[in-house]
Amino acid sequence: MSEHLDDDEILIEEDLDTDALANISQRTWKIAIVDDDEDVHRATEFSLLDVKILNRRLEFIHTYSKAETHERFAVESDIAVVLLDVVMETEHAGLDLVCFIRDDLKWRDTRIILRTGQPGYAPEEDAIRDYDINDYKTKNELTRKKLLTALTAAIRSYDQLRTIEASRRGLHQIITSSAAFSMQDGIEGFASGVITQIAALCGVPSEGLLCAQCDEALQFDNSFRYSVIASAGHYRSLMNRPIDEIDNPVIRDSLRRALSERTSLFEEHNMTLYFSGRGKRAIAAFIELPYALSSIDQQLLEIFCFNLGVCLDNLGLVSQLKSYAFRDQLLMLPNRLRFIEQIGTVIENRTPDQMVVLIDIDDFAEINDVLGHRYGDLLLRAVATRLQKALGEQAYLARIGGDVFGLLGNSMLLPPAELQKLFIDPFIIDDTSHAVSMSMGMVALDSYAQSGADVLKDASIALKRTKSYQRGSHTLFTREMGIAIRERAMLMQHLHKAFDAERLYLMYQPQIELTTRRVLGFEALLRWRTDDGRMISPTEFIPLAEHSGLIISLGAWVLRTSCFMMRQLLDKGHQLERIAVNVSVIQFRQPEFISLVESALRDSGLAAHYLELEITESVTMNGAGMFEEALGHLKSLGIQIAIDDFGTGFSSLSYLDKLPVDRLKIDRAFVTQIDTKDGPRIAELITQLGKKLGLKIIAEGIESDLHWDVLTKMRCDEGQGFLIARPMLESAIEPWLRDWKRG
């Protein structure tokens, strides 16, 4: 009999793959013997003494009653086979335990072999049909050979079920972990996640796991430097230290080998996993194993490593995108978005005495234009370096955009006078000394409840105030500034609505020849009356219209309306020479401006020589070549050109001499000076200049007989003002013309 038994055991061993045997661990199979007979326990364990099934020894668990089995199984796990007596303290105790194992404990993989000495209490067919068992044997038929055969079959079935379940759980774990890794926002979080997921996948504790990074940026002379980026358990002290400082040569060499050879290593008592995608960054994880991994575990880990390599690529892309989203790529400083987030954090944490400072390099655009963008970039780097060295960790430095830097820190550490001192010494750019001045806008965050974006907007308002009124200094934002800006924004909204609702209208002011009192024409003046009857000055709403772009459509409407009005006056027999229409620099920049003028003339039927376009002095100096060509085209059509508010800007006389201009208009401020002790000096100079250039001279703002007499004596040709007539509606023009002739 023993000879046949040995043959059976040989068959059991030979049924396994030889290579697989080398990798299968020395873990035991847990066999639970549940029987109220002590002799059955001893006989079963003795008959299976020193037996190995699938290369594992057997570990026995003994219970003697239904109650004891409940208690023991509640704290046990991974029981492969239960040898269960049908009848113990009661005739149904064994069958009740089957229900407990399947329904309460949910052990679906555990194999249950019923054993009975009294078959009548639980007929075999009924038990197999009604209960989830895997075999039914009478005790006297379970010889050692048959018991071993039954156990081997049960354990094989259990192992296959566990392998399938492990595969299912492992694949689910891989999918779940891949999704989790895709949400990581840094390599450190990724590495820590690797430790957690490997431990869960293999069913081992995270103690002893170690991840290492190969940073190819540190490559020198074909040798790599490795550093620990995540650790657990007794390796935690090695965090952020070079791998060379790991005392254990097995761990140290395994990590170095996996990273250099770019492959995973599986040893009997440890494994080193390598993760790498198409990118340059690589990670290796080392873990000591209490037992060798099965082939299914290794296959799952290979899939895991591949998936993690893809995640590593995605992490690199996400990190790059975040770098572009939150970091300035020229200076590698936090950018506007990151600065806003930081301000929001300070407000949320109610950090006291915080100040936001915007620093703008004066005349930086000119530096770029004259010296080139490379020089400008070098200057920006020099400014950033000086700010970083001077302020260190006491202020959060960011590049907001262009030549504007942002500072956030304690207000006591950011006094404006000290910040200004940082720019006293010139910067050395390309061995050249370059002096720089800067303007600042500041916001104190005390009691601020707005968002970071609102704070930055307020700082920008303060900065604009500095650059408009006192360049090279600083402005602290006040609530009054915010109110003024909000009122301006409200006014802009109302302006758009007023245009759509036709609340804007034209008035016309006569222009006459001073010596003869002959009416030459009219100037079209835009007016705005709000719904509540309040008049808004053109000095308020015209800049808003220019800033918002509304001036384009608004100016086109003014031009067409004026041309049609002038055509009607001419058709009624009035002897007039021109209608003057103001044109802003924004309109002049539009490529279709000339065609728009031609369309207005054509549609209204007005001859071109009746139209005069008034342009400001600054327009003529803004892009000289372009305006000279445009004015030349307009003159070729027969249109008259006047320079408005002459003397208030900074014209180049040599350039002025080249422009196809018909007349100069003396600003009302210089006419008003006639009443002062200084007298009409500037008005006289403008008149003399115009005469030298062969231009007609017209003065605006004539409000007294003195103004008229003085201007006439200095040979000023034409004039307009309240003394002659206030601006009037179109319906009042003809009555006024009749009265003027009679006067």
Mind sketching the topology for me?
Layout: H1 2-14, H2 18-23, E1 29-34, H3 38-47, E2 52-53, E3 56-63, H4 66-73, E4 79-85, H5 93-104, E5 111-116, H6 124-130, E6 135-138, H7 144-182, H8 187-202, E7 210-214, E8 226-231, H9 249-261, E9 265-266, E10 270-276, E11 282-288, H10 295-326, H11 336-348, E12 354-361, H12 364-371, H13 373-391, E13 395-401, E14 404-410, H14 416-421, E15 427-429, E16 432-434, E17 438-444, H15 452-469, E18 474-476, H16 479-500, E19 504-513, E20 519-529, E21 535-536, H17 538-548, H18 550-571, E22 578-583, H19 585-589, H20 593-604, E23 611-616, H21 617-621, H22 624-637, E24 640-646, H23 653-656, E25 663-666, H24 668-672, H25 681-692, E26 696-699, H26 705-713, E27 718-719, H27 733-742
Parallel strand pairs: 1-3, 1-4, 4-5, 5-6, 17-18, 20-22, 22-23, 23-24, 24-25, 25-26, 26-27
Antiparallel strand pairs: 2-3, 7-8, 7-11, 9-10, 10-11, 12-14, 12-17, 13-14, 15-16, 19-20, 19-27, 20-21
